Amino acid sequence: MSAGSSIVLTGVSKTFPGSDVPAVRPLDLEIAGGSLVVLIGPSGCGKTTTLRMINRLIEPTAGRITIGGADIRDRSVTDLRRGIGYVIQQVGLFPHRTIAQNVATVPKVLGWPRDRIRARVEELVDLVGLDRTLLPRYPNELSGGQQQRVGVARALAADPPVLLMDEPFGAVDPIVRSHLQNELLDLQAKVHKTIVLVTHDLDEAVALGDKVAIMNVGGVLEQYTDPDTLLAEPATEFVASFLGTERSMKRLALSRVADLELDDRLWADVGRGPAGLRVAMDATPSGWLGLVKDGRFAGWVDAEALAGAPTVDDLDPVPPAAKVSADSSLREALEVILTSRSAAAVVEDADGRFRGLVELEAIRRGLAR
Amino acid sequence: MRRRRWLVWGGIAVAVGALALWARARINGLSTETQATNPIVRWEWVFLREDTPSELWDATLQHLQLTLTAVAMGTVLAALLAAVALRFRWTFTPITAFTGFLYTIPSVALFGVLRSRYGSWVAALVALTSYTLLVLVRNIVAGIDGVPRSVTDAADGLGLGRVRRLLTVELPLALPVIVAGLRIATVTTVGLVGITAIIQLGGLGQLIFDGYNTDYTTKIVVGSALSIGLAVLLDLGFHRLEVLLTPWARRRSS
């Protein structure tokens, strides 16, 4: 597997013939090798034009684009494109070719031996999560989601370092879309390509992008940063209005509970004994203390119960109503806390071991920066 | 598919049956005297005369030869014209205007003028070929234009190159429309070949003209029936070819 090459756009602009207004104004963009960058913006912002200039489906009017340091004009157009995966919204599978033949398109053009092509096709079909029994079928016998997976497999066939995706999930229904998005992230974790993805769906951009480039009409780059910074600190009025009023809610989906600073005053280990627990109780803001025994959460006690218990074993802690895993997003944690009507939720790792207690205040602090 | 084939053959059978019944009724309705001298079909000419089978065979063969040669030449020429029209879009209108103009020339006139200079065979083939061009050029261009934009975009994005895209993607996908044009051109040409009888060719047309000149309806009926049969067979043949070449078009997801 060849990992991704960096892509650098320097002063790249495009004015279409017969138009006075540039579709893309001189644009500088650096895309790190192996990262997934999302181009997003309203219609007419030149995001698709920018994408298509990278594989020269559109020739820039001015400027320079390099992939892995080499100017894309140094190679022939067909040679360049065979080294760049390309996935589009309508998939564009060849209806007269079987799935196997579709995936094999570029290797066949490159003259790979037949055995190597067959092995590669099977490897790719497994990689994108398709059943091998689909290989002899024709595209119109597959569902939209399956077709899109074939499209990705076809794009990756010759193991290109760069993958361009133009609204790849725009034509499938929302449930399949979120499946495919997660699969793309899993895939990217395995192949480490440099992926440039165009979308108009903000949630998709935030969920997929290592970095997000927000573009304004006429190909003006408004902000280029990671999703959390984007949502927390929009650079311009345009970006703020494009992101909309639910920025904080979107950020909740980005951060994990494990990243929060949790409040240690909310709980104590039963090993401290009744006296120690009473000291800990005095420090809690809520009047309830979480008890942890042998690394696991035992339950809640209030001050009255603690005062009347001569030994730790006499306590009868109330079992927790809310639990989240450390991998959960803040959004899931918030949901659990609000529906259980507790002040705090127990955070556990995958083995059920106690990791801390998260309450609304911790979530609020996590977003404030 | 099975149902459609059934309908085609059923229709042919009904037509032939109706013709036979009508001919029989006519024969029976005439007086013995007229019937003896001038029936619609003299079955003894068809079945008992010694030279009839070889004459019919030769006429049919010549008809087939003229038709297929003209359609083949027309296809090659139309492919070239269509390639030009697709490469340089502005030429499409002049090319269809020109082939359309050829189509409007009365065939009788064209056969006559060309024969006086080049002889019967060349005259017949040039004229017949030129009449196939309009429908063939239009259908080739329409077929290739009909390939979905997303498919050609994907082909470009994968780095297929112009020629490879045309041969391996656009042409196969345009095949149904191109074959539809071929079928129309062929059936039309089968009919037109008959008229080349005026320049001493004509295949089955020669038979029809003979019958016309000598007031011998048997030859007209037999010549027409064979000509129709030839057209239907060629049409079905091309349809069969299309089905064989486009296996993907038949399979659909359930």
Compact overview of the structure:
In chain A, 36% of the residues lie in helices and 24% in strands. By secondary structure, chain A is of the alpha/beta class. Chain A has 2 domains: 7-255, 3-Layer(aba) Sandwich (Rossmann fold), CATH 3.40.50.300; 258-367, CBS-domain (Roll).
Q: How would you portray this structure in words?
A:
The complex is a heterodimer of chains A (369) and B (254). With 369 residues, chain A is α/β, with parallel strands linked by helices. Chain A folds into two domains: 249 residues, P-loop containing nucleotide triphosphate hydrolases (Rossmann fold, 3-Layer(aba) Sandwich); 110 residues, CBS-domain. In chain A, 36% of the residues lie in helices and 24% in strands. Chain A has 15 helices and 16 strands. Chain A has a six-stranded mixed sheet with strand order 6-7-8-3-9-10, sandwiched between helices. A four-stranded antiparallel sheet of chain A has the order 2-1-4-5, covered by helices on one side. In chain A, strands 11-12-13 form a three-stranded mixed sheet. Chain A is elongated, with a radius of gyration of 26 Å. Chain B is an all-alpha fold. Chain B has one domain: Orthogonal Bundle (MetI-like fold), CATH 1.10.3720. Chain B is 81% helix and 0% strand. Chain B is built from eleven helices and no strands. The two termini of chain B are 17 Å apart. About 2% of the residues of chain B have low confidence.
Secondary structure elements and pairings:
The complex is a heterodimer of chains A (369) and B (254).
Chain A lengths: L6 E8 L9 E8 L4 E5 L6 H8 L7 E6 L2 E2 L5 H6 L1 E5 L10 H5 L1 H5 L4 H14 L16 H13 L5 E5 L7 H18 L2 E6 L2 H7 L2 E6 L3 E6 L1 H6 L4 H7 L3 H8 L12 E3 L3 H11 L4 E6 L2 E7 H5 L15 E3 L4 H11 L3 E5 L5 E6 H8 L2
Parallel strand pairs in A: 3-8, 3-9, 6-7, 7-8, 11-12, 14-15
Antiparallel strand pairs in A: 1-2, 1-4, 4-5, 9-10, 12-13, 15-16
Chain B lengths: L1 H28 L2 H6 L5 H5 L4 H36 L4 H13 L2 H12 L1 H26 L3 H9 L4 H32 L10 H10 L3 H29 L9
